């Protein structure tokens, strides 16, 4: 299939395909297009976002079956072959002979690349090593000074995952303020968000830039654009005094306030109504996993707020009202909230 045809055919399954590079389109045409068409015949849509527990189990099953089929003796060798240079050639040959790409993605209607990254996260023994010691933090600073942001190299030296070392360095690289946000910090944050959105919009659609020029307008950008993922580590650098996660949380609170025009959704009677609506809507979804919930739809039901606000509201509900919630499945938590908590909240209202 030529490049233009592949892009056109993939567009049916991946709405943002126009933003994907030519080299990635070629890979997806080979690895994903036939799979997507097959899933369509079975009435299954291509999925993005958080993986469900069912999908995680399927990935584990696919990896274990591939190991049994090839005789490769560990998932780490299969998925992190560069850590075993003496076995590299043999493992690559076995992967090719036994169609690794097809086998690893069997039964999961997602792009192959996302499945592969998820498998690496599940099976990386360096992923779950607990808190960093003071010595490790000092080591991380030294390695970053030597190797820059080559997180792959640093992760190998520290026996931690790429993401872990990158995020930890972002957290410790400068003195972070944990107090209340000052007016100056808030302005820096809003300016940084606006800058990255301006750049993003200019790249995607130069004609839409005019909507950003009205700097005196609160909602200076289309609502749907506000929910797109933002480069938080870059925004952190522009703010200068806050860790990226603080910037993200603050931006979500600003967004919630703007979109609700300052209404106090979490206080008094409004707070009770919000909790009641959220529990009812979650129960109606019949979702087995949090990733199956349409959080954007829920955010509209609650009052035109960001999805992050709704997700944090749900988190507070389960922590506050559901005993031993960590041991329960998502659907069990929802059932408990609906059957036990909802009547009490309605009575209180």
Automatic annotation (TrEMBL):
GO molecular function terms listed in the Swiss-Prot or TrEMBL record: chromatin binding
Q: Which InterPro entries match?
A: Homeodomain-like_sf, SANT/Myb, TTF1-like
Q: Transmembrane ranges?
A: none
Write down the superkingdom of origin: Eukaryota
Q: Name one Pfam family in it.
A: Myb_DNA-bind_6
Location of the Myb-like domain: 124-172, 173-255
Q: What SUPFAM superfamilies has UniProt attached to this entry?
A: Homeodomain-like
One GO term of the cellular component aspect? nucleolus
- CDD domains according to UniProt: SANT
What are the BP-aspect GO terms?
termination of RNA polymerase I transcription
Return the protein name. Answer: TTF1 factor
Query: Corresponding gene?
Result: Ttf1
């Amino acid at each position: 299939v030529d490049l233009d045809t592949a892009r056109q055919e993939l567009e049916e399954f991946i709405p943002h395909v126009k933003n994907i590079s030519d080299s990635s389109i070629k890979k997806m045409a080979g690895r994903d297009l036939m799979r997507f068409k097959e899933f369509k015949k079975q009435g299954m849509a291509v999925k993005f976002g958080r993986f469900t527990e069912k999908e995680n189990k399927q990935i584990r099953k696919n990896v274990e079956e591939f190991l049994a089929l090839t005789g490769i003796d560990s998932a780490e060798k299969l998925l992190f072959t560069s850590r075993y240079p003496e076995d590299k050639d043999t493992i690559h040959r076995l992967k090719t002979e036994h169609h690794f790409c097809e086998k690893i993605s069997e039964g999961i209607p997602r792009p192959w690349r996302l499945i592969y990254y998820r498998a690496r996260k599940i099976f990386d023994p360096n992923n779950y090593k607990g808190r960093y010691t003071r010595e490790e933090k000092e080591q991380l600073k030294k390695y970053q000074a030597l190797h820059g942001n080559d997180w792959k190299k640093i992760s190998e030296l520290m026996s931690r995952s790429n993401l872990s070392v990158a995020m930890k360095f972002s957290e410790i690289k400068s003195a972070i303020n944990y107090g209340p946000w000052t007016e100056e910090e808030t302005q820096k944050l809003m300016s940084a968000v606006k800058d990255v959105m301006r750049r993003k919009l200019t790249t995607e659609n130069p004609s839409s830039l005019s909507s950003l020029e009205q700097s005196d307008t609160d909602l200076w950008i289309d609502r749907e654009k506000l929910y797109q993922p933002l480069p938080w580590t870059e925004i952190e650098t522009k703010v200068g005094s806050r860790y990226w996660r603080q910037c993200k949380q603050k931006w979500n609170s600003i967004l919630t306030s703007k979109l609700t025009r300052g209404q106090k959704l979490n206080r008094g009677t409004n707070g009770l109504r919000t909790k009641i609506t959220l529990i009812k809507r979650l129960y109606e979804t019949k979702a087995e996993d949090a990733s199956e919930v349409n959080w954007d739809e829920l955010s509209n039901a609650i009052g035109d707020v960001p999805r992050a606000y709704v997700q944090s509201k749900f988190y507070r509900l389960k922590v506050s009202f559901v005993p031993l919630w960590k041991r329960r499945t998502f659907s069990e938590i929802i059932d408990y909230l609906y059957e036990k908590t909802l009547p009490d909240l309605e009575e209180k209202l």
